[in-house]
Amino acid sequence: xxxxxxxxxxxxxxxxxxxxxxxxxxxxxxxxxxxxxxxxxxxxxxxxxxxxxxxxxxxxxxxxxxxxxxxxxxxxxxxxxxxxxxxxxxxxxxxxxxxxxxxxxxxxxxxxxxxxxxxxxxxxxxxxxxxxxxxxxxxxxxxxxxxxxxxxxxxxxxxxxxxxxxxxxxxxxxxxxxxxxxxxxxxxxxxxxxxxxxxxxxxxxxxxxxxxxxxxxxxxxxxxxxxxxxxxxxxxxxxxxxxxxxxxxxxxxxxxxxxxxxxxxxxxxxxxxxxxxxxxxxxxxxxxxxxxxxxxxxxxxxxxxxxxxxxxxxxxxxxxxxxxxxxxxxxxxxxxxxxxxxxxxxxxxxxxxxxxxxxxx
Amino acid sequence: xxxxxxxxxxxxxxxxxxxxxxxxxxxxxxxxxxxxxxxxxxxxxxxxxxxxxxxxxxxxxxxxxxxxxxxxxxxxxxxxxxxxxxxxxxxxxxxxxxxxxxxxxxxxxxxxxxxxxxxxxxxxxxxxxxxxxxxxxxxxxxxxxxxxxxxxxxxxxxxxxxxxxxxxxxxxxxxxxxxxxxxxxxxxxxxxxxxxxxxxxxxxxxxxxxxxxxxxxxxxxxxxxxxxxxxxxxxxxxxxxxxxxxxxxxxxxxxxxxxxxxxxxxxxxxxxxxxxxxxxxxxxxxxxxxxxxxxxxxxxxxxxxxxxxxxxxxxxxxxxxxxxxxxxxxxxxxxxxxxxxxxxxxxxxxxxxxxxxxxxx
Lengths: 361, 361
What we know:
The structure is a homodimer. Chain A folds into 3 domains: about 80 residues, Rossmann fold; about 60 residues, ATP-grasp fold, A domain (Dna Ligase, domain 1, 2-Layer Sandwich); about 170 residues, ATP-grasp fold, B domain (D-amino Acid Aminotransferase, Chain A, domain 1, 2-Layer Sandwich). Chain A is built from 11 helices and 17 strands. In chain A, the strands form 3 sheets. In chain A, strands 9, 10, 11, 12, 13, 14, 15, 16 and 17 form a 9-stranded antiparallel β-sheet that branches. In chain A, helix 4 packs across helix 5. At the A-B interface, helix 1, helix 11 and strand 16 of A face helix 1, helix 11 and strand 16 of B.
């Protein structure tokens, strides 16, 4: 791959708020940005030098996009693998198609993690009613049936608490290949946001403690209230996953923390996100290098920045009407407000976030 | 003026790196941005939602620009006053035309400052050879002859060390109205970067100590090595100037610090910049609120953010070929790199800056 220098063009597949914040960081480092997305109202378009609005199945548009950029990345894991592969055949794509292939399919992802000797929830593939019966017999209840692909923020999921729930849950999959996952009785949800370079260097931010509401991330606190050993183990898990994927860029590993009767902590990997991550938004004001700049550095083959934290952090998503509180946040000297420029406020829609930074910790 | 909320469009007259960084801050707060500038290769265009490339004398283009924005500002003080006045007649322009009128003319600016009882260098208007002789007789030598308008980074200036220099200096003014300023034997150059809201609230950053090379800012250190009394006096000067201008937005006051034989410090106002300022670039990573966000907050009628400083700051401009050191800066964990996306590197051209943030102080 040729060396990337300021003035080069970074291509971004996907145009949501993650792409918007990557574009902003890229511009700060003197890069030009070309955003490819399939909807006109894409938050990232406003910060791009060049935009392409076309379906991810439009091979001519993807080819032209790849021809116009020096390096490419993606900002969401549901970029169709065929689109990513087409681009990767024409220009370096970081992270690569392999990371997408592994993380787009919950079954492949779970198998990949389990093969590394890292704990996941118990899981079984489910393709039909017979398969679901067998999976329920093996895993027990409660359990969660999920589509293998295209799920996010709780979409494509159905809980099975008793045998009566099974047919409805299976119907909710709409015939898509599914996976049954055992229910994890967790004490809290954590994430590790980290970056890996092509040369194998690795930098993790401090562990995040996450609270979800209606399956959507509501709140991230850093540092997480876990033991130093657990924090270290979480970083090691992220490092092992990144190395095994030969990953380049920023990614997140979502984890469950469990505590047994004696209070001993254990970690269970829930998901890998091959991209900058909502639980890492606090790094924009709260860390020495934001996850967005870190991603750009890694993708361009530049040195990773330091991942130190400036203080005790609380990041709240502004979901739906919560964005109406923007003025109160602007008036709060501890608050750093970021809005995504979305014209339409809808329930459940991420409109922005606010990071509260207090003291040192 | 109607209340401005996220989703509104901020218009920026001027499209250089200052406009680029204002646009970036505005986008983060959910604003749309329309940049008006007269050259296609404008760094701010890349971060704007809408761009207009037209001369500042194009009344139709200015009228269309004003009609498309909810609030307007400018990013350089040499926006033609007629263009600013046209826009201000159609949409709120902050800061206003008055601040431009005062600061575009060195003579008007000096008189304005002197009328506030604030010390400036001695000055006299110079329109011709006879006027220059009279001014030199009054002020003495060395002195500096400057065009009253359109000077920046040392352009339009000529030093007069002996009577022999006078004709050459006058010729360098090319017939433009000029001002003779007495030479100030300064110990160091300082600046105050501050913001004032429409409601009169005021927030100043810590005093900056500036080093120029070839008349261009090379280095800013914060805090400046001055007494607490001098720092307080500098803030008071900036506050008095802002109040007298009924100023809205971020501005800078450039000052000379003099020390007499006993070491007593005094301040002499050199210039007022009615815009975000190069010596305030460190606030982007080194202060609680960047000067760019602060300017947007003030212009939109939103509360000012806190102006606290994160550590001991050194900001270096990357001028001309110095931008080639970008990789070394990326590898320095104390360095925050910002590049302006300019395609062509030229001697004396500001290509970016790097802020070094160390410890606390």
